[in-house]
């Protein structure tokens, strides 16, 4: 059974969705500390033809709080204007904008719940069948830290393989996973070029950018375009 565990991010890049799609079960790590200047409440979009950051406003965000303890303080008016101004001429703007409106109108101010809902909706749109689990709903020993906590969750869920993004290679000790009977694997995303109006291609943007310019079938092909490192 293939498992991945990641914090919930704000409309994350394609590699996040490749990770979800590659495993049988995906744990949204909502009961760990919020990270300032991370990807939990912000991402890059195509703005005036350039790669620029948009951040969702939060209330009382602090690295001393868990992600599921933080509240959203944003009406998303600026975000909707950003999408309309920069993507209204994109081929899939109408359908993707409707999805985004449904996401931002979700009746919650809780950051973790909002992000969980957005992940589920986009998975549904992309026909990703992976079983999504919330970390805080798992009965576990929260005294474990870092890699030991990941191994603890893997054992509780019964994982045979643990998948992570390539950026996490330095965080884990492969031999300790193997000693626990778990294979450690990393996904390295390949660069998927696609047409963004008439601009020079800008990679690494939010999944929203990819969805605006590509059909579901095309994005599904992108989900499989990675290198698996063992």
Core attributes:
alpha/beta, 6-stranded mixed beta sheet, two-stranded antiparallel sheet, 20% strand, globular
Explain the layout of strands and helices:
Blueprint: E1 2-6, H1 14-22, E2 25-28, E3 42-47, E4 50-55, E5 58-59, E6 71-72, H2 77-87, H3 93-104, H4 111-125, E7 131-134, H5 146-157, E8 161-165, H6 174-179, E9 183-189, H7 207-213, H8 216-223, E10 226-229
Parallel strand pairs: 1-2, 1-8, 2-7, 8-9
Antiparallel strand pairs: 3-4, 5-6, 9-10
Helix pairs in contact: 3-4
Describe the structure.
The model has no long low-confidence stretch (mean pLDDT 96). Helices cover 35% and strands 20% of the residues. Helix 3 (93-104) runs antiparallel to helix 4 (111-125). The strands form 3 sheets. Strands 7-2-1-8-9-10 form a 6-stranded mixed sheet, with helices on both faces. It has a two-stranded antiparallel sheet with strand order 3-4. The protein is of the alpha/beta class and 230 residues long. The protein is globular and about 55 Å long.
Helix/strand/pairing class, anyone? alpha/beta
Order of helices and strands: EHEEEEEHHHEHEHEHHE
Global mean pLDDT: 96
Q: Low-confidence runs (pLDDT<50, min 5 residues)? A: none
How would you sum up the major sheet?
Answer: 6 strands, mixed
Note the beta-strand portion.
Answer: 15-25%
Quote the distance from N terminus to C terminus: 16 Å
């Amino acid at each position: 059974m293939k498992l991945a565990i990641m914090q919930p991010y704000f409309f994350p890049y394609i590699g996040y969705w490749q990770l979800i799609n590659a495993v049988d079960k995906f744990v949204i790590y909502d009961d760990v500390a919020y990270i300032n200047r991370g990807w939990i409440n912000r991402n890059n979009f195509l703005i005036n033809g350039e790669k620029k950051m948009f951040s969702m406003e939060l209330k009382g965000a602090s690295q001393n709080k868990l992600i599921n303890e933080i509240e959203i303080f944003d009406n998303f008016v600026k975000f909707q204007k950003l999408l309309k101004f920069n993507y209204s001429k994109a081929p899939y703007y109408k359908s993707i904008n409707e999805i985004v409106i449904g996401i931002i109108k979700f009746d919650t101010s809780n950051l973790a719940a909002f992000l969980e809902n957005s992940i589920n909706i986009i998975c549904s749109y992309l026909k990703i069948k992976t079983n999504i689990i919330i970390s805080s709903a798992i009965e576990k020993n929260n005294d474990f830290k870092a890699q030991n906590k990941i191994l603890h969750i893997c054992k509780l869920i019964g994982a045979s393989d643990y998948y992570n993004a390539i950026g996490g290679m330095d965080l884990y000790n492969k031999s300790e996973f193997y000693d626990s009977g778990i294979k450690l694997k990393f996904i390295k995303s390949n660069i998927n070029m696609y047409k963004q109006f008439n601009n020079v291609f800008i990679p690494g943007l939010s999944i929203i950018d990819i969805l605006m310019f590509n059909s579901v079938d095309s994005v599904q092909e992108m989900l499989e375009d990675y290198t698996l490192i063992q």
